[in-house]
Amino acid sequence: MSETIAILDFGSQYTQLIARRVRENRVYCEILTHDTSLNELSSNPDIKGIILSGGPSGVYEEEAPKCDPEIFELGIPILGICYGMQMGCEILGAEVLSSSKREYGDTSLEITSKNVLFEGITRHTQVWMSHGDRVEGLPQEFEVLARTESSPYAAVSHPGKQFYGLQFHPEVTHTPEGSNLLNNFLFQICKCKGDWTLSSFIETQIEAIRQQVGNNRVVCGLSGGVDSSVVAILIHKAIGDQLACIFVDNGVLREGEREQVVKTFGGQFNLDFHLADAADRFIDRLKGVTEPEEKRIHIGHEFIDVFKEKAKELKGLKFLAQGTLYPDIIESRSAFGGPSSTIKSHHNVGGLPEDLGFELVEPLKYLFKDEVRNLGRELGMPEEIIQRQPFPGPGLAIRIIGEVTRERLKMLREADAIVQEEVRKLDSHKNIWQSFAVLLPVRSVGVMGDKRTYENACALRIVESTDGMTAKWFPLPSDTLSRISNRICNEVHGINRVVLDISSKPPSTIEWE
Ligand code: XMP
């Protein structure tokens, strides 16, 4: 295994950013629940450091999440960020109070004591704060390293326990020296070597997959998108013919998608590829369902039913491999048992039934999309798969607001194909994260060939993003917008109005449901 940094998650919206920053420094890390047992941490000799994330609670609250205080006895350097700092300080004898003065946003930090954590960083620097509580009454074993106007203890250390605490967030880009600071923690304090690369990730995962599945067979839900394709190729590299891939035509795919996936994976890559033709089952199951979460859950369950049936046919399949990514986990579950809230049940996470009947293999679950794309390149996959826009598991069903019917699917599919075709003509299409149409449950009056029409409206959703966690609406050139709108109204029977979605995430999500 590679040297590892364990990040204990206390529910901060920035926890994944910490993970990213650590990996950008070529150090492997894992995000673990805040209450991960001492045993688990101490039995892993690869753990070179621990980072305690921020979180929304106050340490003095009764229900506040806490780590095992014994982790401070492990002799491993620990960095506490915001809530993580306050909790660490409290465990080591400090008092933490709710402060009447909140500090939020850009703040000036003054480094008051020389410490390796701040090596190479100028005495006055900007940092990003987001807290209400603050540490008071530090025991004398602590050293104060930096202050701000409102926080006399903006950075502290406890040399005896190798504990470092930062009241601000080094992981966000608004703290310009943040990556230097994390760099110092990783290399000067934890003595990491920084030799983790995607190829070492591949090797580690291949080993881990072999260990996990032994001689058993694995079924992989292959949608043809980047994530599941990378998973299939990675697992195939690990266990060869023990892997069977199933592509489910769930009836809510885009125009030509089934043919494309069958063409790409049916012949290439030596995969044991199976097509499950389940379109009618899915569409029948969605009859009368209008509530977004209900749609997601129905689709997730139907997927599993199809898999279970195929598994019986193919015999001896014990594991189910999925292309679950880190953002899927964050938004589907309260983060690793932490107190953040569920946004949507992504079908490959939140929509799984309790009695799954398979054990899960999810080798990408700590990665972000751009990291998965790089992994795909490292595995030698063609750019046309790597560059594919994300497409949600529940497919067009969550882009039809209201009930999903065959007629409405046909309309959306045609409109969506026009959007894809026009966007692909642009040089800037590589900067677009997703571009698609959404069918609205709205009819409006139009005029065509001197005749009154009363038909459906669709919205265009075109966004840029780096990881799907946040997104900005992407301004397509107006002639492209006009062409898309004209073509949809003229070519798609049943749509007479096209509107543009100009909202960002947050507050709006990328998909409408
Ligand atoms: P939202 O709509 O939550 O989407 O802003 C963020 C990104 O995730 C994709 N998405 C999904 N992907 N299964 C998936 O595999 C799902 O259930 C799912 N729901 C949303 C979405 O397309 C966007 O890229």
Can you tell me about this structure?
It is built from 14 helices and 18 strands. By secondary structure, it is α/β, with parallel strands linked by helices. The strands form 3 sheets. The protein has a 9-stranded mixed beta sheet with strand order 2-1-3-4-9-8-7-5-6, sandwiched between helices. A hairpin with a 2-residue loop joins strand 15 and strand 16 (451-464). The model is unreliable at 334-341 (pLDDT under 50). Bound molecules: xanthosine-5'-monophosphate.
Layout of strands and helices, then pairs:
Blueprint: E1 4-9, H1 15-24, E2 28-33, H2 38-42, E3 47-52, E4 78-81, H3 83-91, E5 95-111, E6 124-136, E7 143-147, E8 155-158, E9 163-166, H4 178-189, H5 198-213, E10 217-221, H6 226-239, E11 243-249, H7 257-267, E12 272-277, H8 279-285, H9 292-314, E13 317-321, H10 326-332, E14 359-361, H11 369-378, H12 383-386, H13 406-424, E15 434-448, E16 451-464, E17 472-473, H14 478-491, E18 495-500
Xanthosine-5'-monophosphate binds at residues 328, 331, 343-344, 346-348, 390, 392-394, 434, 468, 505, 509-511.
